[in-house]
Design brief:
With 284 residues, the protein is α/β, with parallel strands linked by helices. The chain has a single domain, classed as TIM Barrel (Alpha-Beta Barrel), CATH 3.20.20. It has an eight-stranded parallel sheet. Helix 3 runs parallel beside helix 4. The longest helix has 22 residues.
């Protein structure tokens, strides 16, 4: 997730960040039924213009989790800025819609960002449920519905989807309230807008509840965006982790999903080679 909240660049074991890296020559076409993207933060040692060119060459459609000043760089490379931030606040994850005290600030941020996103071809902006701080699930759901309902008309008018992320509270984000699909789905269904959806992070939900494929099928109407990551450790989508990402990708595609699935894992080997391998696994 967010660089500031996930431990920073120092935790990333990245190599091959120079333009002479042979991985930059990787080319191909991410064939298949899913539009694949990649989250920016695990690759920040690679300058964004260089990273965008490499992503385009290997057949990716988009780059995820970008600040507004980065959107144009990605578009210039022929890619979609598939998920935008409304702010660079360090407390972005913890300060969410589950607390009414946060609503004025969060709504101001989204009101400023959504029209800009629409004008710059950014289909999604991210939002958070927030940390519990003793708020019951029942009250948290009601508060999220009340707050997000206020931004839904603007999102519908501008044709930009607000994606509220599900995160694990067991390993990475202690006290985060939106830590189960049932909580998030209750909020999305209570709002009833085609432009407010869940960001279903497969890594986080495997840690909290498992049962990923059945959940995707049951909640496909509630989900607007996906993130990947190997469990445990949020590393490559390979045989060191427990999830069958080819099966998961097939299940997502079978629902008729037309949004983006963004790779959000921290590479432990050559970063671009690991990214290319993940694309191949999910090209179903």
């Amino acid at each position: 997730m967010l660089l500031a909240s996930a431990g920073g660049v120092g935790a990333l074991a990245l190599t091959g960040t120079r333009t002479t890296n042979p991985s930059l020559a990787l080319a191909g076409n991410a064939a298949g039924r899913l539009r694949q993207s990649v989250s920016r933060w695990p690759y920040t040692k690679i300058p964004l213009p260089e990273f965008a060119r490499a992503c385009k060459a290997m057949g990716l459609s988009a780059i995820d989790l970008l600040q507004p000043e980065e959107w144009g760089i990605v578009r210039d490379a022929g890619l979609v800025p598939s998920m935008g931030y409304p702010t660079a606040r360090n407390d972005f994850i913890a300060t969410g819609f589950n607390d009414p005290k946060n609503h004025p600030m969060l709504l101001r941020e989204l009101e400023a960002t959504i029209p800009r996103a629409a004008g710059e071809g950014v289909p999604n902006v991210i939002a958070m449920f927030g940390n519990r701080h003793g708020i019951s699930d029942e009250q948290g759901i009601a508060n999220c519905i009340a707050g997000l309902k206020q931004i839904a008309p603007l999102a519908e008018e501008q044709k930009v989807t607000v994606c509220v992320e599900l995160l694990n509270s067991r390993v990475d984000h202690k006290d985060y309230q939106g830590d189960h699909t049932a909580f998030g789905a209750a909020v999305i269904r209570g709002i009833g807008s085609p432009r407010v959806k869940l960001l279903y992070d497969i890594y986080h939900m495997q840690i909290m509840e498992g049962d990923v494929i059945r959940t995707i099928r049951e909640h496909s109407a509630d989900i607007g965006h996906y993130h990947t990551g190997g469990v445990p450790g949020r590393h490559e989508l390979d045989d060191t982790q427990e999830l069958n990402y080819r099966g998961i990708a097939s299940a997502i595609a079978d629902t008729g999903f037309t949004g983006f699935i963004a790779h959000e894992f921290v590479p432990t080997r050559d970063p671009l080679a690991s990214l290319r391998a993940a694309m191949d696994i999910c090209a179903v």
